[in-house]
Fold each of these.
Amino acid sequence: MNRPLHLALLLLLAAGAAAAETGSFVGAGVCASCHPAQSTRQDKSAHALSLHAAAQHPLAARFAANEWLTREPSFRVRYRRSPNGIRAQGHDKENVIDIPVEWAFGAGEQAVTLVTRIDSEWHLEHHFSYYSAIGAMAPTAGHSALQPKTLPEAMGLPYKTKDPAVGILGCFECHSTGPVRISPGNILQPAEAGVRCEACHGPGRPHVQAASRGDIRQARTLIANPKRTPAQEILVKCGQCHRPPATAGTSIDWNYSWNVRHQPVYLAQSKCMTKSAGQLSCLTCHDPHSPLKETSKDTYRERCLACHDGRSARAVPVNSGPCRKDGACATCHMPAVSPQPALRFTNHWIGIYDPAKPLRPRNQ
Ligand code: HEC
Ligand code: HEC
Ligand code: HEC
Ligand code: HEC
Ligand code: HEC
Ligand code: HEC
Ligand code: HEC
């Protein structure tokens, strides 16, 4: 490595340390200087974009469109940009509430949900989320059934800041990288917004220090490379946020459509996984650094055919027709499930489905 790059790196490291105070986490900006290939792709992924200060979200103009939204029985809410950031304004017949919107969760591949700190004990998950499939605001997942009586209730659902079961701190932990800083008054500040390098590779400072002094062999031992991790453990690692496969004795409600979003839980049920002697993991089909939408249907088909070559997957009937081995395999064998309109997940329990019953394979 040449000298100028070396110096630039040390400066970057110093800046990272001062800004984040997060010990051995250095931030994706530092990794990018030596690993541009992974970084330029990962920068654009939904992982990297899964948390923003609300005003900085790329879709801010869509969710803060200053349009009146109505909520039964008699409430109106609008989100708009002000000189100090995004604000939410709520009205009923007598009252007005006007509060800042601080955080926007979700890259917007599917949805963006807005969050505001109310006081040290409580945060608000706003009632209206932005859904990309419909290009509009609609109730946040889990809110439709709630019936507000007061204006504060109409604004959204309060969450405890810290609560081991459903605290707002948990949202930050899965949507950011490194330890979340908790300032006096329970002001939450993620070390690095979004799911970045060190969320999967672990804290990188020792690796970077070894690499900077040219000790490549040691650098390699000081960073986790999931390439060498067995399939079953990859499911657990990704499952840290996507939910890990069920352990023995845990029962899963296979009729509850929201559970389909927990891909590791479902993939672990597949015969493709259980009968392939540890050959199948999330990484068989997904490039961990690339945006999902850059993967074509043909790529998934190739992955299936790597194990199910044209000879062993017999031409079998599809209701009245054959198994379409020429088609996009996942369409039938990993059906889409929509637990609510405008959200869509892929059933990772690979199997043979009755098209009317996409939650569970017909013979299981
Ligand atoms: C000063 C340059 C430098 C920086 C900064 C750097 N790396 Fe590396 N990294 C290397 C070198 C050199 C290797 C070993 C050669 C190779 O595999 O390209 C390496 C290898 C790796 C590997 C593969 C390890 C293996 O099994 O061989 C991973 C994973 C990795 N780096 C991740 C990261 C992450 C994450 C960051 C940021 C926290 C980071 N690197 C920052 C230089 C750097
Ligand atoms: C630190 C938590 C975390 C970890 C660890 C994690 N993910 Fe994610 N993942 C997320 C979040 C949050 C999203 C939602 C992104 C968004 O806002 O749309 C996501 C989204 C995704 C998507 C959809 C991306 C898109 O472009 O729509 C894929 C695919 C994915 N993750 C695969 C993986 C795999 C494979 C692993 C393990 C190698 C993994 N994830 C590990 C948190 C995590
Ligand atoms: C256990 C980790 C975890 C926690 C806690 C968590 N999320 Fe997520 N979140 C994810 C993952 C993983 C995805 C990607 C889901 C997928 O596409 O399968 C996601 C996706 C999202 C999305 C994109 C839309 C969607 O449903 O895919 C939004 C918005 C979101 N989360 C908001 C929140 C908010 C707000 C909270 C706190 C109330 C929260 N999340 C708590 C892991 C988590
Ligand atoms: C969602 C988890 C996840 C995130 C986020 C992530 N990586 Fe990785 N990374 C992986 C996995 C999994 C592998 C092993 C890939 C494989 O098997 O080919 C890997 C491999 C690597 C390697 C080694 C490549 C090789 O051929 O051995 C480098 C270098 C690397 N990542 C750098 C980065 C950098 C830099 C970032 C941030 C810009 C990053 N990663 C973000 C999961 C992740
Ligand atoms: C790592 C290898 C591997 C990959 C990749 C793989 N499978 Fe499989 N699959 C298997 C094995 C092994 C079985 C079990 C065969 C048996 O029962 O003897 C299986 C079984 C199946 C079955 C029958 C399930 C049942 O319940 O009877 C279907 C359908 C299937 N796979 C479709 C697919 C599709 C579609 C893909 C791509 C999205 C895919 N597989 C990817 C290895 C794989
Ligand atoms: C056999 C191939 C295959 C494997 C293995 C696989 N996926 Fe997927 N995954 C897909 C397909 C196909 C899609 C849908 C892609 C699309 O719609 O563009 C998908 C979509 C996703 C999404 C987007 C949300 C959704 O549900 O549609 C996430 C998140 C995800 N996968 C995570 C994972 C994780 C985590 C693992 C490991 C437990 C995993 N996947 C293993 C094929 C696979
Ligand atoms: C149009 C929907 C559809 C598509 C596309 C499709 N299949 Fe199938 N597949 C089915 C149905 C239905 C069955 C069960 C037929 C029966 O009743 O035996 C089946 C059965 C199977 C089986 C288990 C039976 C056997 O042959 O041992 C495998 C494996 C399989 N398909 C793999 C694939 C692969 C790989 C692809 C893509 C190259 C694919 N399928 C594309 C609908 C489909």
Note: Residues 3-48+196-221 form one domain.
Amino acid sequence: MQQKAVLITGGAGYIGSHTALLMAQKGYKVIILDNLGYQQTLHAPWATFINDDFANEATLSHIFRNYNIQAVMHFAAFIEVNASLKDPRVYYQNNVTKTCTLLQSMLEHQVRHFIFSSSCALYGIPEYTPIDEQHQKNPITPYGASKHMVETILHDFARAYNFDFVSLRYFNAAGAQPEYNLGEQHQPETHIIPLLLQALRMQKPFKIFGTNYDTPDGTCIRDFLHVKDIALAHYLALEHLEQGNPSDCFNLGTGKGTSIKQLIEAAQKIFGVKLHIVHDKRREGDPAILVANAQKAKQILHWQPHYSDLKYILHSAHEYTIKQLMHKQFMQTHV
Ligand SMILES: NC(=O)c1ccc[n+]([C@@H]2O[C@H](COP(=O)([O-])OP(=O)(O)OC[C@H]3O[C@@H](n4cnc5c(N)ncnc54)[C@H](O)[C@@H]3O)[C@@H](O)[C@H]2O)c1
């Protein structure tokens, strides 16, 4: 009997690479399909890597025919909220149209289980907080709308075909696994923790976008979740489907909000460096507060975040960046 396998699209990216490692540790053969869209590097001896677009039908067919694929975990997407406002076409093309091609290929090859990387961006401006799954979906950016559209398609597929899915709506992914050389390496980097660490390291000014929000200190509040906790939810989501449970959507977050000012203060305290802060205007598409109510994932998937303490998140992200820089320097001087 051929080893159970999972196909991980976007497995050379930030969250997909951590999940690929966990799935390999859980005994799955892991196939990563990623086109290395931002020239990122991936050192993942625990996985089979295929460098291609996730909507290449011939490649998908080859994978589905040659491996015992139990499920597709679909991370591949364009992920920048602001870029999606400037050029929505490419966001709908990559995140929605191509996902339809992937789903079509799954149906053709009788691959039934799909785990989708959704986002809190599909809720839009929260009407209440913490946000639960029942909250109205009113995305304010093409990025958020693309996640909402795919979820709609998934519901229709699950109703019509022999097909089941779990959609995991992450809040803010953060942290790293430096011991495996896994962490954030987006190009350009738009996520706050890598930018904050860069500013601390290089003694560069750090911009806060918006200080007049309706929050206690005027800055946005976010729910930071360690990427290892997100990876675990994927494994549990697959178990949920394999046990014959129905398709469903779950929020993933800690339920604890941290303001941008609180995050900066924590980082300054941990690393003993004072930052030069610059106040900038609000960015379009940034709600004041995004905090998850993740009770449903806890009750149904038996998921618990274990690594999402802010100190641990910052330390692991910092250690990863330092390792990356040392590696770069070594390569520049020795190669
Ligand atoms: N990072 C977060 O905080 C966050 C929050 C909510 C949801 N998400 C979702 O989680 C998923 C992963 O996010 P991430 O932060 O790891 O992003 P990432 O950019 O690091 O990873 C995405 C990966 O997909 C690949 N990719 C994109 N389009 C592709 C294509 N057409 N063919 C093949 N590969 C392609 C990229 O090369 C990249 O490796 C995304 O779907 C994102 O929308 C992320």
Note: The pocket of nicotinamide-adenine-dinucleotide is lined by residues 10, 12-16, 34-37, 40, 53-54, 75-77, 79, 94, 98, 117, 119, 170, 172-173, 186 (CB under 6 Å).
